[in-house]
Structures are given as C-alpha cells and as structure tokens.
Amino acid sequence: MNARILADALRDPASTATLDAQGWTALFAIARAEQLIGTLAHRLDGLPMPRAAARLLEDARASAAQGRAAALWEAEMARRALGPSGMPVVLLKGTAYVAAGLSAGAGRSIGDLDILVPRERIEEAEALLLAAGWEWVKPDPYDDLYYRRWMHELPPLIHRERDRMIDVHHTILPLTARIAPDAAALIADSELLANGLRVLNPADRIVHAAAHLFADGDLAGGMRNLWDIHCLIEEGAEGLAARAAQHGLTAAVRRAARQVRRLYGTTIDAAWHGWDAADPLFQRRMLARDGWGRPTARVTRLAFYLRGHAMRMPPAMLARHLWTKWRKGARSA
Amino acid sequence: MRHATALRIGPIGFRIGSAWLAPITTLNDLYRDYPKPEDGIPDFNVHLFAARPWRRVLRPSVHIGGDFVIPDAAPLPLAQGLLAAEMAMNLQMALGQRRYLLLHASAVARDGQALLMTGLSGAGKSTLAALLMARGWRLMGDEFALLDPVTGLVHAFPRLISLKNQAIAVMERALPDARFGPLLRGTPKGDIRHLVPDTRAIATMAEPAEPRLILFPSYGFAAAEREVLPSETFVRLTQASTNYVALAERGFDALTRLVRSVPARALDYPDTATALAQVERLWDAA
C-alpha cells in the first residue's frame, strides 16, 4: 500500500467506484495526511459512493470553504496594510490560486499567507505589517539574522489577533541556493487582480511551484504541490520553457512535468516526456505512505531531507548552520 | 499497525491501530456492544505507537496520533493504553470534527429532550451524568455534546465514562452491577476508571434529542441557583467549544439559536444528593 490510491482517485475520480470499505478508509487517511482531503472532496463531488464516504467528503468541502474565506480575508488584511504604499504585492501559492479562481484552488488547504514584494522595498513592507498588528515569531537572534542574510523571505510574522502567519518573500529561492531566479521579472510580469493585489503570470506560477518542490526542501507536501502543478499546466502553459530557462529552473520544471504526467496524467509537451534515472526515487518519496496515512520509506525520506539542505546552501555553510542549531538544541534540552 | 479495531460512538466512527495488543483487547472488551463504523468507513483514525521501534518492548510508552495531531502530546505508560486510546479519540474530535459544533459538556436525556451540563474540569459533569444515568436518565455522553447546526438537535457521544478519583467509589456503589474498565493509577489526572454506559445509552445512541436545559454546575458551594442570560451562556459555550472558530458562521448560527431557545442556570452544590434534587426541580421548571 502506498499513496498511489490517492493519485488514482484524483486523476480518475470514477475509478473510486471499485473501492471497498478498506480502500475508502486508506484513501481518506492518506488524503488527510497529504492535506488533499478538500481537493479530493471537490474531485469526487456528485459521484455515487457509500453514505459514510459522502458525509465525510461533505465535511471536508465545508471545511475547505471556510479555509478559503479565511485565506482571502487574510490577503485583504495584507492589502489594507501594504496597498497604500503603492508597492506591488504578489500573492503566491494557495491564496493566489483561490484569489485568481484557478482550478488548483478548489478545495485546497491553505496555511500561511505567502506574498512577494520587491526586494528594495522589503524593509518598508515589514514596517507596515508591524504597524498593522503583525509581530515576529522567532525571537532568536541567530534565526533572525539567518533569515535576513540568507533567506528569500523575512522571518515569519504572525498577526497577534488573528493568529495567522505571513511569509514575505523578495524572491522564490533562498539566496544561498545556487540558482537565482529573476525576481524582478516575476513582479514586473505579474497579473493585476480586481482588488489591486497581483498574482504571478501562468508560466511563472508553474515555475514557482516546481522550484518550491524540487529546488528547495525535502519534498514534504509533494503530492499536493504536484497536484497544483498538474492543475496549473492543464490551465495553460504557454511560454513555460522560455520562462523556466530565464529563471534558471529548467531542470526543476522538467522534473515536475515528468512527475505530474506519471502521477496525474497531465498533458505535457512531448519533448519533455522521458523518465530519468532519479525520477523513480522522487516518485517513491512522493508516494511513501501506508494505509493509515503514516510516512514510510525512512531511508528515502532521510536522503531527501539531506538533499534539501545540501541544495539550500554550500557545504561549509551547511555544516556551520547545523552545528549552531545542534548546540542550541542541546542547550535548551 | 500491528493490531486494530473499529467502533462507532454516536454518529462518529473510529479506527484504532496500535503497536501493542493489550489496548485493543481492552477496547474490544469494553466497547463490545458498540456497532462498527457506518459502511465500514471511519470518520477518524487513531494511532497508538512507540516513539522508537525498541520502545515497543523496552519500557513501552504509548504515543498518541491519528489524522489530526498536536506536536507535544505526552506519552503514557503501556498500562494506561486504554486512557491513551480514549484521549486520542477525543483529540481527533477536538481537532478534526466539522459536522457538529462540539460542546465540552455532559448530556443526558429524558422523553427525547436533552440536558446539557458544562463547566471546568472538576465541576462534576461526568459524575452527575453518570448518577443521572443510574437514576434512569438516558446517558448521551460525559465529554462532548454534538450540536447539529442544521437541525439544532443534540447528538449523543456516549463513549466510556471517565471517572476520576473519588467519583470512582461513588459510582461503584451507585452501580454495583455495571461494567468497569481497569483501575488506572497515577495518570496525569490522578486515578481513572472507565464505566461502560448502560445498554439503553448504547442502544439509543443514534437518536438525537432536542435540548431543553443548560446547566453550569459548580461543586463545593452551598446550594444555589441563578439564571444565566443568553449572552453569558453564549460566551461560556464558545469557550467550551473546541471547533467554534473553525465552524465560523455555521457555529455562530448554531450557538445563537441554542442560547436563544434553551434556558440556562448556574447551579452550586455541596454534595451529589443535593445536586440531583436541584437538577430534577430545574428540569421540571424548564
């Protein structure tokens, strides 16, 4: 048993007709673990299924609708704080998908609010957010300095009344990574929404999602990110190759395209078909869940965890960073 | 998971998996008269697991998890595996329930109408509910009352009744023929012993009831009763609900309707005999 059962249900909702009670139970446990239960609920809406399954998915849809309202409200709060300054504010990820009415937003679970602002105005953005009631989450001076020197975003801020986090980015990969996307172009070519906020253009949305998954981090949340990419590609991917090249992210985008084609049956450019030597490992990592939704394949997970860190920073810096973090952990324990 | 069982409490189905056999055996025994989840599909999964593989055998300690988790839930010794399972089921409800507004309250019913009792831990809501059950009321639950936002009715959640400390002896005397779980000594909440709800509570657990009276009991005071206005009841119940915020407008509407249509009383009592008389009188007046 692995998370293939979830991929199949998302890809071909009618295939759930063959599920027995055990199959439904595993499907729901895995969908919850991957934070895809709301997405699944939207995909399966209206299909015949056991009453207990229908009821559970109905709850998931209601929950996602509430999550959507909260995410849009949080975006509106950021607009009120930053809008008057005239700086462009670009919504990223889940909030962008629901704000722009994209299919990737249907039922999607949304956590933090992620926004992108011009790097030269990031301090101004921080001051405006602090004045509007957000505060720093990490009081640790090392973490704070680390974020400000090396990360692609401010240290996370949380709103003291609404208890919601905002991540303010000035680019889409850490500054320590070897790849430096064209952040100015992301903003310059973004699309304006009716409320004055912006979202990335269609090609950049795909590039960002692929960068987030394959060039940064340990692939946690991989199935959800790939579902985003599947929806985004199906909604139009003109100029994707050129745009990926411009940001230095061709490899990540191509890997994303191969994975979504395999997993969700996405239509992609024939030139991008194929399956490289590392692809099966990525897929193994992506699907590593048992029928209770618990993570499996510990060695593969650890390997991807280390890979994620290695990609984020050069070896000497990584060693120093892990040493500092380990000593802090040892002292507080 | 090496060992597993499935059961339904009120309208909610659970699947419980465990690294050890003992907690599953106890659950299967105490919940033997409960039905299985509807259509065999549980609403929630519960995991009882060892933090490290060797901790399954060596100084075994039970970590709780499931579909919904909090980062710092402390582990329990294997001897308290039943408590771990109960806590984990409650946690799934508290964090994941979206169909019903969850009220942290005990509930009993008579003639198809429900009495809700809510208050801080130690106020006596479990004990009062169990004593009322012993006197012929239908037990709906001692932990959560499930308020349906669509119908305004209360659904039962008659899990095992969690008796603590002095209440254990009180109920052993009141219900000598009842079924009890193992005595769990030295838990984070002192001694705990679970009481199996009576046959009637289990047989009627799928039937909702119309709320008729809300009580806020407080143990350890001279007997007194006071009317609680809908505004205060509303605020108290938002604090007694784990998913009020998550349900948003549905939760607000459900709670507004409840406090407007159902009277509420604060009830101070010095001992259980006095409390039971007070409850009967307030119920008849409601």
Automatic annotation (TrEMBL), chain A:
Top-rank taxon, per record: Bacteria
Family annotation (Pfam families): NTP_transf_5 (PF14907)
InterPro entries to which the protein is assigned, alphabetical: NTP_transf_5
Protein name: Nucleotidyltransferase family protein
TrEMBL record, chain B:
Keywords: Kinase, Transferase
InterPro entries attached to this UniProt entry: HprK-rel_A, P-loop_NTPase
UniProt keyword annotation of Transport present: no
Keyword Transferase in record: yes
MF terms (GO), sorted A to Z: kinase activity
Membrane spanning residue stretches: none
Protein name from the UniProt record: HprK-related kinase A
